[in-house]
Amino acid sequence: MPAGRMGCFARYTDLEPEDATGYGYYARYLITQREYQRADLFSSLALGKDPSNPIALAVSGQILAMKGDPNRGIELLSRGCQLEPEDAESQFQLGVIYDRIKRPADAVAHFQRAVDLNPSDARASDYLALNLEPLGEIDRAGAAYKKGLEVDQRGPFYDAFLDYNYGRFLMKHGDLAASKFI
Question: Would you state the pLDDT for residue 1?
Fold first, then answer.
C-alpha cells in the first residue's frame, strides 16, 4: 500500500480515535487494495465505534457479502444507504450484491442511483445496462452502455469489460456491424 495513504489514515485515526468514519473509509480503501483481512478488521472497528455510522455500515455490509452472507450484507448496506443516500459507492456496492443474487430490478435501482450521483462511474453504467437487459428495458440498457463508454477511463471507476459487454449487447440485438467496432 502506498505509504502516503496509509500515513494519512493512521494520522487521522490517531487524531480522532473515536471517529468511525475514518476507520470505515480506511476499510473501503483497503478493499480497493485487495487487503481484505485488514479491511474486515477496520470495518469491525468502525462498526464497534458507531453502529449507526453510514460508512461503517456500508463497508461492513460489503465485506459480509464478500464473505458469503449477502442477506446480512444487504441489511447493513441498505441501512448505510438510508442514512447517507448521497454515497455513490454504497449505492454501487448494494447494486453489486443484488446483481450477484440475481435480483435485477433491485440492482437497477441502486446502479441508477450510483450513476446519478457519480456520472463518471463507468462500472455503474455497465452494471446498470446488464441488469436492465433481463428486465426488457433494451433502449435504456443501450443508453447506459453508451454513457459508460463516454466516461470509461483508467482510474477507480474504470470498467475493463464495458466494451465487451456492449459489443455482446449489440450482437444480441442484431447490430453485428456495429459490434465489430467496439
Answer: 43
Q: Give the three cell numbers for residue 89.
A: 459507492
Render the burial of 124-154: b for 16+ CB within 10 Å, e for the rest.
bbbbbbbbbbeeebeebbbebbebbbebbee
Give the integer Cα–Cα distance in Å for 137 and 155.
Answer: 29
Residue found by looking up cell 438510508 in the block? 82
Task: Summarize pLDDT for 68-91 with one digit per residue, the tens.
Answer: 999 999 999 999 999 999 999 999
Of 83, 56, 88, which Cα lies nearest the Cα of 64? 56
Tell me how long the chain is.
182
Average pLDDT of 102-126? Answer: 98
Amino acid at 141: A
Q: Provide CB contacts within 8 A for 96, sequence distance 6+.
A: 65, 107, 127
Grid coordinates of 60 = 461492513
